[in-house]
Amino acid sequence: MTTTKHKTPNELEHIEAEVALALVQGFHRELELEPLIERFHGFCESAIPLAGLRYAFPERSVFIGIGDQGKHTLNYNLTFSTAPLGELTFYAKSPLNKTQIELAEDLTALLVSPLNNALRFLALKPKPAPSGRDSLIAIHLDNFADVQKRDGAEWAQTLLHAVLSQVREGLRNSDTAYQVDDETLAVLLPHTSREAAADVADKLRVLIAALHLREGDLTSQLTACMGIADTSAGTTPEAILAAARAALEAAQTGGANQVRLAEPVRAIR
Question: Is 94 inside a domain boundary?
Answer without folding.
Answer: yes
